[in-house]
Amino acid sequence: MSLLVLGANSLIAQATASHFAEAGHEIIFAGRKQDEPEKYANDFSIRYKVNCRAEYIDALDYPTHRKFVEDVLSKTPQLDNVLIVFGYLGTQEKAQADFDEAHRIIDTNFTGVVSVCELLAAEFESRKKGNIAVISSVAGDRGRQSNYMYGSAKGGLSVYLSGLRNRLSKSGVNVLTVKPGFVNTPMTYGMPLPKPLVASPEKVGKDIFKAMKSGKSVKYTPFFWWWIMKIITSIPEFIFKKMKL
Ligand SMILES: NC(=O)c1ccc[n+]([C@@H]2O[C@H](COP(=O)([O-])OP(=O)(O)OC[C@H]3O[C@@H](n4cnc5c(N)ncnc54)[C@H](OP(=O)(O)O)[C@@H]3O)[C@@H](O)[C@H]2O)c1
Question: Ligand 1 centre and the CA of 136: distance in Å?
Fold first, then answer.
């Protein structure tokens, strides 16, 4: 039993990994900074007494992804769980004026995830088992003026995952789309968010673990975001376009 975490530096990634470690899984922490994943691997192996190691991956360095996946699989041939956490919120206003920022938002949240996910999906499909979870966002359910660059990348990601799930279901491979609302992490630090709606990374990590273990397809976390997004997506466009969101 093992878990590969892509985007190890995220608090949500660590919170989810802690449940897998408690259940005795080997944890492979992968991230773009060499020292951080290594720090978590050492910490988890002491705390949970499970095998852990660190790997290096940059979501935007697509040509390296094949070798990354081959290396991981050669060291852990029985890899059975993958959690992809990469993400970049960026700045909407900057992205409107500077395509480099828009490009980075789209590529980190969508293209980079698709690049590495396809390689892992092909492996799990050929083995006819495995569990792939990817963090999208409620922001992908409807475009808003305040973050439509990020939201559209996550929306594209959710549609990609829906198609991948459709493809892999006959092979017994589960694909979970995680849609968190507001989470208290460095990504949202300093934002004026409505406190009752902000979840802890621990709460989200627990929801992801449970959803992966039960073979769920889509998980809104916390659960009440399902209701919030039902309402938001049902507002007619002629009203929605006049709202300041
Ligand atoms: N926080 C929220 O309210 C919220 C809500 C909905 C969805 N999400 C999603 O949840 C996921 C985790 O976010 P978070 O809140 O934990 O924020 P975070 O702390 O900013 O985590 C983002 C993670 O993505 C990694 N990353 C960014 N660009 C990368 C690249 N080019 N290559 C490799 N790794 C890269 C970061 O690594 P470094 O630390 O090395 O930069 C970090 O580990 C993201 O997909 C985010 O979009 C968050």
Answer: 10
The residue whose CA is least distant from atom 21 of ligand 1 is 10
Which neighbouring-strand residues pair with 130?
173
Rounded to whole angstroms, how far apart are CA atoms 31 and 29? 7
Give the C-alpha separation, 153 to 19, whole Å: 28
Cα–Cα dist 115/128, whole Å: 20
Beta strands (DSSP E) in the chain are 2-6, 26-31, 52-56, 81-84, 130-135, 173-180, 182-183, 198-199, 218-221
Distance CA 199, CA 197 (A): 6
Work out the average pLDDT over 10-21.
98
Note the pTM of the prediction, 2 decimals: 0.98
CA-to-CA distance for 9 and 88, rounded, in angstroms? 13
CATH topology of domain 2-240: Rossmann fold (3.40.50)
**184 to 43, 177, 193: CA distances (angstroms):** 22, 20, 10
Which atom of ligand 1 is nearest to 186's Cα?
A: 19
Q: How confident is the model at residue 244, as a pLDDT?
A: 87
